[in-house]
């Protein structure tokens, strides 16, 4: 049990969501002046005129005039546009801001009218240029995307859009990707405008308000069902839209609903689909200084200054310090940790408050506990922390107040140390946010989710690592991730500059470092994928179908925009390929392919030779080995020693061997690179190498001195290696795999025989006698590579020219027909209507279980436990021992899942049956069963190693799915089942799990 132990959603097209074409005009009834009681007649008349002027058809004369006006506009260019051409117009470019607009080719573009009337909202400070331009777009009733760095002031634009809507008696929707962020935005907007409501999966407050804050999931549901609310909406504000790319899809809203989009990612408007202004700025309100802290070093190194200049010399010095202190030795050192030293230094230099980002929840807690001896708060601040904390948890029961997280967190908070990650109890997380915003927390240890949307900057930001685990492997964080988190440094109006410190414990190439620290934000790429719920909802709406939605999606648009470049790429590659003329091409090509085959077989043989069983007995000190790492040939070196380690990067511990080899390296780089041949720029260095990097094993060994620390000793070993190489001009003798290494594997022997046969054919081939063989062989290799590139580019082009995922759509519709959700005419049946009600779980499996009667004989507690398998997604090593009461229903559910997987496989969908079944995780079944029977939260926390916050998130998602199951049961008229699911909601909705948000 750990000491401190929202889903991302998507934005949808109006085509994919609203349903009938007949409904669309009504959605801006208020802006067309036809039906909204909120809008005055004067406003209606004015807006109606604006709409008619901008949308009326052009006659021939006006079209010519329009084209003439466009040619005069500076910076005009054409780009692909969702199914039609678009025009990109550069309106204005200042030193701090760029303003462009994207309009369809047949759209009458009009200049923005100046702001003459009294503004809808006034601010006590001077607006930045990007804010003024965005507000001008809003006042002209035109969609706008605002792209600026964190804390630059994008919220000002959103507030103004809301103020305009309230002034014009229209409704406005403000969406965020997370429920927690929606709660915070609701509090901000309520304090500002009062007439504000909230709609999330957990909470609904004042749904008839003029301004409604909601998650994008709720907006999607409203669009699917043609909600009446959308008929009155004039503006929709999408906040943090760059985070929505990680889920289902991003497509455009109706042109009759004006859109304001806020994001950190700086990208151009050619990635948008409807007439839209784009105002973006790359200037930070508070400039940043970026420092590197190499593990074990004595100080920091400024690598990017406040002007954005990358300091290459400082970067290389930092890497040199890392090399001298020993790579990967941070956990083996005694005394204070590197993080402890950095935080203490920050406090001594008065650079607080500081946010320390870690990519592990458990590491967050561990690092915070290391600071428990430090104290950053005054006596008065401690009293305030205690008062805020006590008031926050006052709503909890006495039992919940004694939870380990609650008890152990307060002493740290009093010292000015906080923790923020998804495993925390929500009420504690919100308390910490409030304390941090009030300056009562000086050092906050957080995961990257803290950088999403929260307007809580600090003076300093620290990264404890430059790598993160992405679910498959450890990788460098992207420049976009770095920008998002480092953007929390620097408080506007308080700090002259923000400080960012990156702790690093392994060698990093300067190219990677520059890309990370000074790179561009991640592009906004659609990660669209089809779901059965989406297909069914589109099928039940008249005048629209999934095929049309695919054609008009942002995903398809991004795909189509690559076609011109791919066509040009194919032409260039073909031209290069055809320009290569090879003498006796057929024979040379045959010779090249034989050599290539030998090379591949040699690699297979190499994998045998470097297996620990055969290789390790010959890793004696002094053994000469040839080392090649990532294509870089270090030549011959001497084995110094080898180490046996256990890798923890996978769920199953794996034994790995690291061989220390003395190699000749270049002194031009801190990162080990082969020597260039200049004696004054090379040195003998001991390099840790994997067995796979040992290309050749020699039968020769050289003498090694006892102490290799002096450079002279290493230099003498290098001289000995050079002498050995001179004595064997035809190459060093190698260990014989069979005679010396005793490899008797039959597969290995077959590989050796194939190599011998191919080598004989090479010697007798016609091309072998050609004096220009090597030159012709190189040309042949180049031509084959170009031919392969042409084929690959043509495949990409063909893929881009087709409607993306259309084959998958056909397969999914085939599954729906075979299971009885829709008929051959794509008209949905009763099962399909039931599945439409379920969108937070596996809709097909849950619907099948309802129709199979899987829940009929189960108790309320069993239903709750079984449904927990659909909402728990986290990894845990602890598999509970389930009683027959729970394992029986689980087996029935798994049987139904296998049947669905088999039907999907028969329908040609790419699905693995076992993976699909195992995706339903039963790890919290016993926990949820106990909770539904009335167990205390402290009791169920002891039943699992899952974080407390994760348990609460699971139970809250379970409440959502139970509500949807109620609606599904109601659709088929099963009152008994509907009541059972309703009772399940009553059983789980209690105590700390559903404690009210402090923001509400």
From TrEMBL:
<keyword id="KW-0227">DNA damage</keyword>
<feature type="region of interest" description="Disordered">
    <location>
        <begin position="1"/>
        <end position="76"/>
    </location>
</feature>
<keyword id="KW-0508">mRNA splicing</keyword>
<dbReference type="GO" id="GO:0005524">
    <property type="term" value="F:ATP binding"/>
</dbReference>
<dbReference type="Pfam" id="PF13234">
    <property type="entry name" value="MTR4_beta-barrel"/>
</dbReference>
<dbReference type="InterPro" id="IPR048392">
    <property type="entry name" value="MTR4-like_stalk"/>
</dbReference>
<feature type="domain" description="Helicase ATP-binding">
    <location>
        <begin position="135"/>
        <end position="254"/>
    </location>
</feature>
<dbReference type="GO" id="GO:0000460">
    <property type="term" value="P:maturation of 5.8S rRNA"/>
</dbReference>
<keyword id="KW-0378">Hydrolase</keyword>
<feature type="compositionally biased region" description="Acidic residues">
    <location>
        <begin position="53"/>
        <end position="62"/>
    </location>
</feature>
<dbReference type="InterPro" id="IPR001650">
    <property type="entry name" value="Helicase_C-like"/>
</dbReference>
<dbReference type="GO" id="GO:0005730">
    <property type="term" value="C:nucleolus"/>
</dbReference>
<dbReference type="InterPro" id="IPR012961">
    <property type="entry name" value="Ski2/MTR4_C"/>
</dbReference>
<keyword id="KW-0832">Ubl conjugation</keyword>
<dbReference type="Pfam" id="PF21408">
    <property type="entry name" value="MTR4-like_stalk"/>
</dbReference>
<dbReference type="GO" id="GO:0006401">
    <property type="term" value="P:RNA catabolic process"/>
</dbReference>
<dbReference type="Pfam" id="PF08148">
    <property type="entry name" value="DSHCT"/>
</dbReference>
<feature type="compositionally biased region" description="Basic and acidic residues">
    <location>
        <begin position="63"/>
        <end position="76"/>
    </location>
</feature>
<dbReference type="InterPro" id="IPR025696">
    <property type="entry name" value="Beta-barrel_MTR4"/>
</dbReference>
<dbReference type="GO" id="GO:0006974">
    <property type="term" value="P:DNA damage response"/>
</dbReference>
<keyword id="KW-0347">Helicase</keyword>
<dbReference type="GO" id="GO:0016787">
    <property type="term" value="F:hydrolase activity"/>
</dbReference>
<dbReference type="InterPro" id="IPR014001">
    <property type="entry name" value="Helicase_ATP-bd"/>
</dbReference>
<feature type="domain" description="Helicase C-terminal">
    <location>
        <begin position="338"/>
        <end position="542"/>
    </location>
</feature>
<dbReference type="GO" id="GO:0016607">
    <property type="term" value="C:nuclear speck"/>
</dbReference>
<dbReference type="GO" id="GO:0008380">
    <property type="term" value="P:RNA splicing"/>
</dbReference>
<dbReference type="InterPro" id="IPR050699">
    <property type="entry name" value="RNA-DNA_Helicase"/>
</dbReference>
<dbReference type="InterPro" id="IPR016438">
    <property type="entry name" value="SKI2-like"/>
</dbReference>
<feature type="compositionally biased region" description="Low complexity">
    <location>
        <begin position="30"/>
        <end position="40"/>
    </location>
</feature>
<dbReference type="InterPro" id="IPR027417">
    <property type="entry name" value="P-loop_NTPase"/>
</dbReference>
<keyword id="KW-0067">ATP-binding</keyword>
<keyword id="KW-0698">rRNA processing</keyword>
<keyword id="KW-0539">Nucleus</keyword>
<dbReference type="Pfam" id="PF00271">
    <property type="entry name" value="Helicase_C"/>
</dbReference>
<dbReference type="GO" id="GO:0003724">
    <property type="term" value="F:RNA helicase activity"/>
</dbReference>
<keyword id="KW-1017">Isopeptide bond</keyword>
<keyword id="KW-0547">Nucleotide-binding</keyword>
<keyword id="KW-0507">mRNA processing</keyword>
<keyword id="KW-0007">Acetylation</keyword>
<comment type="similarity">
    <text>Belongs to the helicase family. SKI2 subfamily.</text>
</comment>
<dbReference type="GO" id="GO:0005681">
    <property type="term" value="C:spliceosomal complex"/>
</dbReference>
<dbReference type="Pfam" id="PF00270">
    <property type="entry name" value="DEAD"/>
</dbReference>
